[in-house]
Write a structure and sequence with these properties.
Jelly Rolls, 7-stranded antiparallel β-sheet, 4-stranded antiparallel β-sheet, globular, binds 2-oxoglutaric acid, binds fe (ii) ion, demethylase activity, metal-binding, Oxoglu/Fe-dep_dioxygenase_dom
Length: 201
């Protein structure tokens, strides 16, 4: 199976492996996690208002790996067997350890993730994020921070079931990423971003 390949994003280290998990394994894991994960729909503060996030989320990890973002404080739930197994596979493929995972469930094409960088201080100076996709294919968009990369062009990448995306180095400082809504009829998609939270809270 082809290994992680470096993508052509300037001043970034983004690697992609389209067939990280075999399709039968990706399909089985999608069904198991969709049904068993403790999904929640949090609200975040947006321009002073409480707005429900346009997706479902869940946070699992080591006990000390607490995480806060957009005014939310997330205490991790203990690892389950399938999540531990996937964590081991991801650590092996990337050569890096992870102590927590944020799961996102995009129920339809109307669920989305806005432009952001995963640059919270508790992720360290150069965050390492490994992201596994299951279910329907959605497109991730990347855009450069123009003050740093005035000549770089935006970049789109389809993330099919079983794919692995690794972002590290300066990526979270030089680029932002998003999962836009789509008008196409798409089924549910589940994404897991493995992270290493450094104890600060
Ligand atoms: O759903 C995805 O592929 C992206 C998720 C993401 O960017 C995040 O959780 O920070
Ligand atoms: Fe992200």
């Amino acid at each position: 199976m082809a290994a992680l390949t470096l993508l052509p994003l300037a001043q970034a280290e983004v690697y992609f492996q389209p067939a990280f998990l075999p399709i039968p394994e990706a399909t089985a894991l999608f069904s198991e996690l969709t049904a068993t994960v403790a999904w929640r729909q949090d609200s975040i503060q947006l321009f002073g208002k409480q707005v429900p996030q346009p997706r479902l989320t869940a946070w699992y990890g080591d006990e000390h790996a607490a995480y806060s973002y957009s005014g939310l404080y997330l205490r991790p739930q203990p690892w389950t067997e399938p999540l531990q197994r996937l964590r081991r596979q991801v650590a092996e493929a990337t050569g890096q350890p992870f102590n927590s995972v944020l799961l996102n469930l995009y129920r339809t094409g109307q669920d989305s993730m806005g432009w952001h960088a995963d640059d919270e201080p508790e992720l360290g100076p150069n965050p390492v994020i490994a992201s596994v996709s299951l279910g329907a294919t959605r497109r991730m968009r990347f855009r450069p921070r123009l003050s740093l990369l005035p000549d770089a062009a935006p970049f789109g990448l389809d993330l099919p079931a079983g794919s692995l995306l690794l972002m590290q180095g300066a990526t979270q400082h030089t680029w932002q990423h998003a999962i836009p809504k789509t008008a196409r009829a798409v089924g549910p998609r589940l994404n897991l971003t493995f992270r290493s939270v450094q104890g600060r809270l």
